[in-house]
Structure formats: C-alpha cells, structure tokens
C-alpha cells in the first residue's frame, strides 16, 4: 500500500510503500532541462569515442607500458567511467528520474571519477616535471611503474573513503531532483573544505607550478627544436584547459554555500544555482579534452620510437 506524505524541507511528495517498508521520493514539479540534456549528450558521444579508443590503444600495447602510460591509463579509466554515467544524467534532464539511492550512487560515481581525473592529472604533472628537471636521475629511477600504480591506487582508495564517509550528503532526503540538492541544504562544511583544498586547490598549485617550470626549462634550452616548442605549447594548452574546466565548479560550490536562500526558493530563480549546473557541465567536458594528451602520447607509442623516459613524460601533458 502506498501512503502519500510530504517532505517539509524540499516540498516533495513521498510515497511510502508499506508492503516493502521503503520510501519512493517523487518530485511533483519535475523540471526538464532540454539544453542540459543536449549538452551532456554531446559530451557523452565525444567522450565515449575518444576514451574507448584510448583504452583500447593502451591495453593493446600493455607490454610496452612505462610509468607515464599507467598514469594515462588511470586517467582514461576515470574519464570513461564518468562518461558511462552520463546516460542517466541525460535521461534525468529529459524525463526526470525518481529520487532513490540510485541517485546517491550516480552522484558519487560522477564526482569520484572527476576527482580521480584531477588527482591523476596532478600526479602526471609532477612526474613530467621531475623527468625533465632531473633527466639523468629519471633514467636511473627504479620501480617507476610500481610507484605509478601505487599512486593511482592510493588516489582511488582516498576518494572512495571520503565518498563513503560523506555518503549521507547525497541521500534522497537531501535532493530536490536526482542530480540537484535542495537549495536550503548546503554541503557539510568539512566536506566543502576537502573538496576545495584537497580536491582542487592543492592539485591546481601542483599543476601550475610543474607546468610553468617545464615551460621555463624548455624555453631556456639553447637547442630549441620544433618538438620542444610543440611540447611547451601542449603543456600550456592543457594547463589552461584544466583551469577553465575545473575552476568554475569549485567557485560555484563556494558561492552556493554562502548564498542566502529564501524560504520560497522553489519558486525563485537563483542565478547561483544555474551557475552551479552550468559549471558541472563545463567540468564534465574535461573528459573530452584529455584526448589531446592521449593523442600525443599514443602517436609516439605507435611510432616505435624508443626515446628516453623524459620524452614520454614531456608528451604526456595534461
């Protein structure tokens, strides 16, 4: 038997299934967002193609992997997992999914993979800088592949642990729609700090510092070949892409956290909330732009060229 009650905070209808002892949360004022659905559809199509191709290429030549290839494979896996979750978001934009623990899982999956991509990008930037700054030491470093694997594994364990600890943040009772929080339910303060500091600011500092140092080292090299100029250009482009893709969403987190929410927020247009939704889409496009790195690494990978480790590292710019 279904009993209809109301969620006082979010203004949703809750159908309580007495037979199964559970709640099915529904949104009587479902808001369909065609523009968002089209936008995520484009990201899904392009992201699926480039990341599936990259994974196939990496796995096909797994015997020739270096530490850089392990990092890049991890990045491709994170991007591909994020892409595979997008059909649910596309469906929700057009038809509105009922709110359940599936929504909690989908939100966690989306952001775990987004931050896995961010952390892997930071790790690649550090690895590339060390290889170019200390080329002879880099050649003698042992167990680099093991270290790369450990770094990637630690990133996943850390992200899954944080997501598990703060899993209640995205429980159905805190959601207005499947992918949207109730505007009067801000994120937990500690969770916000983790997302902003460990999830964005620290990786951003690492990426900007390492990328700028790589560009300086290459620009001061007296033997300026076209290849080195190309590498410097790729490093610059990918650093800019990272900043453009991930800065808006983390600014949006802060803005929405501190923006006062009126009591009638369900009937009021909130620019900060629209900005958050737009910035989430911008962040998701990074899974497509990472293909720039895959292309230049795989181009060398399949050329049969056996170059020094720093060459691989230089080309694997994110």
From TrEMBL:
The keyword Glycoprotein applies. GO terms for biological process: phospholipase C-activating G protein-coupled receptor signaling pathway; positive regulation of Rho protein signal transduction. GO terms for cellular component: plasma membrane. Gene3D superfamilies: Rhodopsin 7-helix transmembrane proteins. GO terms for molecular function: G protein-coupled receptor activity. It is a multi-pass membrane protein. The chain crosses the membrane at residues 38-59, 71-90, 102-126, 146-166, 197-219, 231-255, 275-297. Residues 50-294 form the G-protein coupled receptors family 1 profile domain. It comes from Stegastes partitus. It holds the Pfam family 7tm_1. This is G-protein coupled receptor 35-like isoform X2. The gene is LOC103364378. It is found in: Membrane. InterPro entries: GPCR_Rhodpsn, GPCR_Rhodpsn_7TM. The keyword Glycoprotein applies. Keywords: G-protein coupled receptor, Glycoprotein, Membrane, Receptor, Transducer, Transmembrane, Transmembrane helix.
